[in-house]
Recover the amino acids of this structure.
């Protein structure tokens, strides 16, 4: 089965890439050219899985000597990090290729407005959604698999309180980075609320112990509590929202001033 997978996957990927190429510039998905999206977000991940599988096969089956778990982890980490650099440039290529296809069909096309879609709405949404999914995943796992950390009560309380404070700062960062596009804040609030609701349901169903054996669960729970609490009460205060809007404006202005693209005003 393993050998069949290692043989079929690269052949399937190459054939798919060749057949798809002739459809360049015909359709879009998430403002990417559809073919470039498939290259960057489907074929490249498949290639990553194949290479990791091939590497694992060589390390465990084909070497004349056995490696420890630590050695395999180190080799896999080096390989994965190196591939991440390659993958980053592959995605950049897919994005710029999408820009080029737009310019070919329309020389007056606004590439800056197109790039702002990725810079603001899409990238922010993916980053926040990814953070919620990953942290919630570890939180759920911690319900069923307790940690072996032996923390004192004071240390445990420090982690829990610190997570609540981090949640408040995460909400501030969310407000400051709000692109104000396509119901961004509504989507983010719904996402955080769903994650918080899941945490509450897990709490009532499994009744996790309030100690270091469920540290990840309680850290995520407190961080989500802070974010939901802040989103409910902070945005009801006009003074608070005006403060964040002013802070965001000042940060943006300082950014453009430092680039010498926005002149400083002389004091009268």
């Amino acid at each position: 089965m393993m050998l069949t997978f290692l043989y079929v996957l690269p052949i399937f990927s190459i054939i798919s890439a060749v057949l798809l190429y002739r459809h360049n510039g015909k359709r879009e998905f998430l403002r990417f050219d559809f073919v470039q999206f498939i290259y960057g977000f489907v074929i490249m991940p498949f290639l990553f899985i194949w290479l990791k599988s091939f590497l694992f096969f060589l390390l465990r089956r084909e070497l004349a000597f056995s490696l420890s778990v630590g050695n395999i982890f180190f080799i896999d980490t080096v390989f994965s990090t190196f591939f991440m650099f390659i993958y980053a440039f592959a995605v950049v290529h897919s994005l710029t290729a999408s820009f080029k296809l737009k310019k070919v069909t329309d020389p007056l096309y606004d590439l800056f407005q197109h790039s702002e879609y990725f810079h603001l709405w899409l990238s922010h949404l993916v980053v926040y959604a990814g953070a919620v999914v990953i942290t919630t995943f570890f939180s759920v796992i911690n319900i069923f698999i307790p940690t072996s950390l032996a923390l004192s009560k004071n240390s445990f309380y420090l982690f829990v309180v610190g997570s609540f404070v981090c949640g408040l700062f995460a909400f501030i960062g969310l407000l400051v980075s709000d692109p104000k596009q396509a119901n961004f804040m509504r989507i983010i609030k719904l996402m955080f609320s769903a994650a918080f609701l899941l945490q509450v349901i897990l709490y009532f169903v499994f009744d996790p112990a309030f100690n270091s054996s469920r540290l990840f669960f309680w850290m995520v729970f407190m961080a989500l509590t802070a974010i939901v609490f802040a989103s409910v009460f902070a945005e009801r205060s006009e003074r608070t929202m005006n403060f964040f809007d002013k802070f965001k404006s000042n940060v943006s202005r300082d950014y453009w001033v430092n680039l010498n693209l926005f002149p400083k005003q002389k004091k009268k």
